[in-house]
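Weekly structure sync - notes
Attendees: PM, LS, DV (DV joined late)
Agenda: review two folding runs queued last week.

Item 1: First target. Sequence and structure tokens pasted below for the record.
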Amino acid sequence: MNDDTPPGPDLWASVDALWEWLESSTPIEGPEGLLLRILKLNEEVGEVAEAVIGVTGHNPRKGVTHTWDDVQSELCDVAVTALMVLRTLTPEAREVFTRHLARVTERSRATRCGRRFPADSP
């Protein structure tokens, strides 16, 4: 990010706003609605795979159909969808995610060259 890049929207304010919009327009509520949001996450992951196959031309029938920008966009959709599901599960999504990220970060610091230190063993 250079000095000319304007600041983006606050992540968690955006998550809350998107979640409120989603909640107000969802056709199916309750446990079934939650399950459908989780399935939506799987759909988005599939779109990442489709874009990667498309950027590499792995499907000879279709050839190259996507760009790496498409892959980036699909990955962003996965992240947004995952945050929507997390926010659906708990209004404390920010805190839950922050704690989890701290644990993952700490674990990664304790690992060097793929080896775990004895204190980090399960």
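Item 2: Second target, run right after the first with the same settings.
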Amino acid sequence: MNIVSKIKIGIQYMNDWPLEPLLNPVFPECRVKKAVIAGRKILPPFIVFILFWAVYQGGGFKGIPLLFAISSNFPVTLVCVIFLMLMPLQGYLWFYKRAVTKLNDRQKDFYLLVCTKLEKQPVLNPTMMDLEKAINACIKTLGADLLKKL
């Protein structure tokens, strides 16, 4: 499986994970999802700021040609921009890793409970992605009261 498909699975898992307050103490997905969403909104202005700062430090706003101003501190600027651009990708890869993680015994028991309540056939070796789908179906059909048993 290549990195692009892993990122797509991570994005799908992140987007599908419910932001239910009852899940916050049990699963870190809610907190990481909020951080990745905030990063997608906050990081682009920082990237633009770093680019303008690089031009300013190179003297680009004082009459020096733009390409010369950027080339004076280009390696540091490039590393900073790449680092900031890769931060959300790290979150997506973390979500992929969580999506393919096998359930522990307690989570598997809850998954089986939800599947029996929904009258749905459970998967033989469930992963966190299967649990997420079961939780979403549970919230839609039965409400969030069943999540208190988790």
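Discussion on item 2: The radius of gyration is 22 Å.
Action: LS to circulate a short write-up before next sync.
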